[in-house]
């Protein structure tokens, strides 16, 4: 119940039922049910494909493909590919990487990611690591693969998962990470959405205040899985050699902060066998990008697959690197911001209480007038300022929360704020203008009530009192969300 109430609170606050429904976890099924398998992928003629199935966490059956050179030596190195974020991501998503790595002499296992127990609002990195270990065991048993030379590759979210698997198993010979995060997920994702907004030309309180506030509220409501997971201790427990790869134009992982965090954790654990490399004109997945990380081309960054193939060959032959970093300096427009759990006065529960107060206070004013008209009674006195306060307050509260939630939902693929004017998306600019008008309307309504001559009925006093109470609470609320900041 402690987690259900905040989750319901945020869901009601955001009024995003369609989006939430699309991301809600599927109904529970028995753990030994097989995950749906995608059709076997098309494979180039110079490679051989073998379909495999294996047990993941909880006994779930997962399906994958092992790619290896059609000709060549036996006892070759192997590598398991671990997906980035996404529910039920098919193996075809990483088939480009798998093909290129296999052409460098590796046996590569790529598998369909689970959807059971994994959704936008629910996931466990430990569970995903168990799936990866199941894949490692499956690759160990493949003909032509040297079990002592099987490693793991993780992209993005896989950069949190792969170290967990490596720290728990001596059956993993090496670790390759691409676009990996050395920071907690909530801190990374908040930065990513802000980076996307900055790339689109947005700045100011929407980026600096509203987006972080929304993410903290969502996390407090239980709608952001593993928000404060600290990867440092796990990375420090990794004893295998590590290859870290980042694109210089990564807009989803802070490319200046993550590599030092990884290096610091590895060094703390006594592991100096790591190689870090930055690829120019490359994005989060080390694919080519022509526009600073906004567009991802199908091609891998030049030299990326060659580096993986050569590095794996060296480390599996016993030629271990020692704290090497190379490549051009990455581009990071702004630093990340620490994301601590919210205080009680900014919690998801209190946000729910405030939104309900606004709905009652602002909607009661026109609702009472409508009810009286339908009953044929006398119309209560109405002022233009009161109408503006009522309509503007509801529009700003619901509109701003819905817009912020939309930005967060699209932030994983770079936020799409719409047209931007003077550093403000036009939608946000309109909401800010309406918020200022709502504050002014609060003052004018209070002044008009004070100047009212003659007796005021108890019902009218309650009606206007609720409206003004909503307007008074609206001011600090709008300041907190950045709606009244320049």
UniProtKB/TrEMBL annotation:
InterPro entries: AB_hydrolase_Est10, AB_hydrolase_fold, Pept_S9_AS, Peptidase_S9_cat. Residues 127-287 form the Peptidase S9 prolyl oligopeptidase catalytic domain. The keyword RNA-binding does not apply. Residues 1-22 form the signal peptide. It holds the Pfam family Peptidase_S9. GO terms for biological process: proteolysis. Gene3D superfamilies: alpha/beta hydrolase. Keywords: Hydrolase, Membrane, Signal, Transmembrane, Transmembrane helix. The chain crosses the membrane at residues 348-368, 388-406, 426-449, 461-483. PROSITE patterns: PRO_ENDOPEP_SER (PS00708). GO terms for molecular function: carboxylic ester hydrolase activity; serine-type endopeptidase activity. PANTHER family: ESTERASE ESTD. This is Peptidase S9 prolyl oligopeptidase catalytic domain-containing protein. It comes from Streptosporangium album.
């Amino acid at each position: 119940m402690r987690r259900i109430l905040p989750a319901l609170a945020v869901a009601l606050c955001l009024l995003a039922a369609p989006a939430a429904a699309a991301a809600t976890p599927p109904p529970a099924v028995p753990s030994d049910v097989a995950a749906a398998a995608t059709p076997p992928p098309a494979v180039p003629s110079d490679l051989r494909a073998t379909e495999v199935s294996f047990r993941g966490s909880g006994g779930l059956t997962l399906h994958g493909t092992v790619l290896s050179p059609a000709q060549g030596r036996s006892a070759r190195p192997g590598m398991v590919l671990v997906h980035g974020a996404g529910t039920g991501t098919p193996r075809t998503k990483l088939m480009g990487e798998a093909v290129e790595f296999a052409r460098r002499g590796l046996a590569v296992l790529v598998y369909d990611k689970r959807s059971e127990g994994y959704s936008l609002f629910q996931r466990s990195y430990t569970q995903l690591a168990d799936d990866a270990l199941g894949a490692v065991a499956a690759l160990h048993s493949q003909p032509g693969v040297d079990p002592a030379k099987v490693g793991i590759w993780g992209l993005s979210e896989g950069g949190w998962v792969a170290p967990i698997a490596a720290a728990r198993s001596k059956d993993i010979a090496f670790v390759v990470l691409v676009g990996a995060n050395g920071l907690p997920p909530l801190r990374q994702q908040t930065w990513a959405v802000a980076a996307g907004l900055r790339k689109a030309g947005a700045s100011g309180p929407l980026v600096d205040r509203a987006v972080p506030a929304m993410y903290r509220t969502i996390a407090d409501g239980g709608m952001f899985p593993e928000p404060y997971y600290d990867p440092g201790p796990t990375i420090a427990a990794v004893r295998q050699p590590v290859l870290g790869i980042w694109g210089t134009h990564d807009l989803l992982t802070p490319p200046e902060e993550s590599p030092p965090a990884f290096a610091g954790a590895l060094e703390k654990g006594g592991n100096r066998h790591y190689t870090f490399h930055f690829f120019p004109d490359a994005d989060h997945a080390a694919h080519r990008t022509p526009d600073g990380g906004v567009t991802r081309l199908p091609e891998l960054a030049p030299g990326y697959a060659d580096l993986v193939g050569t590095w794996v060959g060296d480390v599996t032959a016993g030629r271990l690197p020692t704290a090497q970093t190379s490549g051009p300096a990455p581009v990071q427009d702004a630093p990340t911001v620490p994301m601590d759990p919210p205080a009680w006065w900014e919690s998801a529960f209190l946000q729910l209480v405030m939104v309900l107060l606004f709905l009652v206070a602002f909607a009661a004013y026109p609702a009472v007038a409508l009810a009286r008209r339908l009953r044929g009674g006398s119309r209560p006195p109405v002022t233009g300022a009161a109408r503006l306060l009522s309509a503007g307050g509801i529009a700003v509260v619901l509109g701003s929360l819905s817009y912020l939630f939309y930005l967060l939902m699209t932030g994983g693929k770079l936020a799409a704020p719409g047209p931007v004017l003077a550093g403000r998306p036009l939608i946000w600019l309109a909401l800010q203008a309406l918020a200022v008008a709502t504050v002014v309307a609060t003052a004018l309504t209070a002044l008009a009530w004070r100047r009212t001559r003659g007796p005021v009925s108890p019902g009218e006093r309650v009606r206007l009192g609720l409206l003004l109470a909503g307007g008074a609470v609206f001011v600090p609320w709008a300041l907190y969300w950045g709606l009244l900041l320049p």
